[in-house]
Amino acid sequence: MWKPYRRAIEILQAVILTGLPFLTINGQSALRFDIPTLKLYVFGSVIWIREFYLILGVSLFFLLFIAFVTVIFGRVWCGWLCPQTVLLDLSQSLAKLFGRNQQKTIQRLLLLPLSALVSITMIWYFVPPAETLNSLFVSTTMTSFFLVLWVAVYLELAFLGRGFCTSICPYAMLQNALFDKDTLVIEYDVSRDATCMKCDECVKVCPVGIDIKKGLNSACIACAECIDACRVLSEKRGMPPFPNYKGRIVRPKTFWLGGATAAAGVVLFVLLWSRPPVDFLVTRDNAPLPSGLNRYSYTIYNNGGKPLALELSSPDNVTLIGEHSLLLPPFSVLHGRILVKSSGKAPEQIDLRISGSSIASSIKVGFL
Q: Per DSSP, what are the bridge partners of residue 294?
């Protein structure tokens, strides 16, 4: 029976998605996009919004991963892992504990707290959980976001439900273009149709209301409910279920598409972890100043999870006027300005440097 495996995977997925915002690495959420600073925390590292190439790399990896899973495993995401499927399945299972009467009404009541949990979990991926809970009914903005998301999620789950999967979901539409003849699908064995009892149990349990006996249907979410329902009766007759998973997982496309996805993941990992611990940017201000005196604006990004104590200096024959000793908290950015005065003949360029514990970076800039 497939149902126990589905339930175990659904519960595991729900625990991971709900608990991930509470997991901290280097003092920050394991996965969170911080809107005020426009940076993405990714398992102990950070991607700044200015690092477009990394954002593009993350997008490319997930597109390849989605294509790989869809081409090989079909709609396994929809039937086993999609948060909508998980929430509807869990609420339906809980509603059945109260009996068959008013099951739909009970399920809708259960979806109220579940929708609230989804709403606040979505916010946690942008605002740390502790900060969210402290300001939930204090900050007007936070309260408004929570309530709007709660209502939207509840209405979608309680009243649109499975209809979203068959009519609106863009991923479902994309799958139709990615499937091939070997993609894993649930198919009715027409060669044994004469021995089918035509009990229609497979139709009664189908969450999207299709009849698998009529052939492949793009609305099928591959949840295997029809297989389990048929197995209960067919095994009594010593026969395998009439609908079953069909497809060829191990094939050439598995290796080259899976290899491309793995290669993209490795490249992304190398790009992310090979970045320097700090990025140092300097620009010369064009403000009018006395001869031999220049002013520069600098920006320093701390890409790591440890605070950095840095020293700003220059080996050239110049004097730096301003704050030399700098302290950067983890995953932070520091903006500042410094005056540079020539002690003798003005050089054409000067070398501005930052240095600290195992940190060294320099930039040559023009001097007038």
A: 340
Inter-CA distances, 298 with 245, 275, 304, 333, Å:
60, 19, 19, 10
Give exposure, 99-136, as e/b (b: 16+ Cβ within 10 Å): eeeeeeebbbebbeebbbebbbbbbbbebbbeebeeee
What's the CA gap between 274 and 259, in Å, rounded? Answer: 22
Query: What is the C-alpha separation between 168 and 160, in angstroms, rounded?
Result: 10
CA gap 169, 218 in Å, rounded: 12
Name the amino acid, one letter, at 53.
Y
Fold of 278-366: Immunoglobulin-like (2.60.40)
Residue with the two structure tokens 């929708």: 115
**Tally of CB atoms within 10 A around 316:** 17
For residue 110, what pLDDT is reported? Answer: 93
pLDDT score for 354: 85
User: For residues 111 and 157, is the Cβ–Cβ distance under 8 A?
Assistant: yes
Q: Quick one: pLDDT at residue 87?
A: 92
Domains of the chain by residue range? 3-267, 278-366
Q: What is the pLDDT of residues 189-216, one digit of tens each?
A: 999 999 998 899 999 999 998 999 998 8
Cβ proximity of 231 and 191 under 8 Å: no
Any alpha helices (H) in 235-340, and if so which ranges? Answer: 252-273
The helix or strand, by DSSP H or E, that contains position 52, with its residue range, turns out to be helix 52-73
Residue ranges, the chain, pLDDT below 50: none
Bridge partners (DSSP) listed for residue 155: none
* Under 8 Å between Cβ of 210 and 185: no
Structure tokens given for 119: 């709403």
Q: Which amino acid is at 103?
A: Q
Structure tokens at 192: 């044994």
Please say whether the beta carbons of 160 and 202 come within 8 A. no
Question: 130-151, pLDDT tens digit by residue?
Answer: 999 999 888 899 999 999 999 9
Identify whether the C-beta of residue 32 lies closer than 8 Å to the C-beta of residue 126. Answer: yes
What's the residue count for the chain?
368
Token code pair at residue 342: 């020539």
Contact between 27 and 330 under an 8 Å Cβ cutoff? The reply is: yes
